[in-house]
Amino acid sequence: MEYKNISVEKLVKPFNIVIDNIASDKSISHRCAMFSLLSNRSSTIKNYLRGEDTMDSLKIAQMLGAKVEDDGDIITITPPKKLSEPSDILDCGNAGTGMRLYAGLLAGIEGSFVLTGDKYLRSRPMKRVADPLRDIGAKIDGREDGNKAPLHIRGGKLKSFKYHSPIDSAQVKSALILAGIQSDEVSYYKENLLSRDHTERMLNGMGANIKNIEDGWIEINPITEPLKPLNITVPTDPSSAFFFAVAAAIVPKAKVTLKNLTLNPTRIEAYKILEKMGAKVTYIKTDDLYEPMGDIIVEHNELNGVEVSTNIAWLIDELPALSIAMSIASSSSIVKNAEELRVKESDRISAVLNSLDLCGVKFTEYKDGYKIDGNSTLRKATIDSHGDHRIAMSFAIAGLLCDMDIVDTQCIETSFPNFEELLESLKN
Ligand code: S3P
Asked: By alpha-carbon position, which residue is closest to atom 9 of ligand 1?
């Protein structure tokens, strides 16, 4: 893998900018690649995220027999008549979503499949999907008794299930939904807080029948015939856009208009927190296709501290960027119930706090979160990304206040290839 660094200079004047070319949604793009395999006709996808993670998912779709055509604008995915056993291992790169969702999909397909990934993904927990999938008959093995990739999956007939997940995870839910729709009988899944629901929305849009019933349970009905193809324009990723939301919130007199985001409530909670901290945030709904979509405008204001301890799954990816806003807020902030941060692309509690320490920010670490004292004047530091795109981008944004060197930034390519270019454009 290439090794890159970024040096960010302090902004000398505020910006007021409209950004309409932030990276497309990663979660939705992964699902486009995978779900198109469940149809018998070609799916057409506009604005597919051309980041490393999602290109890996597309390549896997191809290795399973799909024909992928890319005219530079629209990607057309034509599924094979029957998904075939690939002749090589399937490399998910850095993508937990890729590995966990493909595990659920492939568990129900006849054949032998090996899912692997980069050194970071190979150290992340897979038991959360392997265990419930094994319980319904999937044959999955891997290092540490199937907890660590490479995972070997021998797919085949799956039983239906009733599963109450101990974690609120869209990856686990999606893996189980993909398994459930391939079984012969109705399955049920429950999570304590609704995690991002792109899988349910998109599969239902394709003709599946996945519905919320009483008491937080989701009913997953088997699919008896191929689904309709997807015809979708992938919206902008609100998690990627959030770096620029934080930029506008922390730079005095700044304003940003972020165009064409998914406004799915399970994805924009971090913007609500920024609003609660004092930033001016405006939501403009413009469309509704599978998901509500529109623009978000964020304007600078004095920021206060905040407590973040509920709806954690709705802002888990944005917590590193929020930690920058929390550092300069006028009072302390607390993040609790966020232990999941420890098993993301890096241990994000350690990575955020180690990096804040280098920037002169005071904090207290908890097992499931942290307290950030606030009122800090950030100082220039050399930040190691820990191979984690969201750490790299969060501290690049902090650099707008004080100069910053970020090392090992190749990981940004996984989700937001034009991040640096957009960061530069704030200077104009
Ligand atoms: C994702 C779900 C979340 C999120 C990840 C993408 C998805 O992970 O952190 O970046 O696309 O389903 P978990 O479901 O493991 O919480």
From this structure: 317
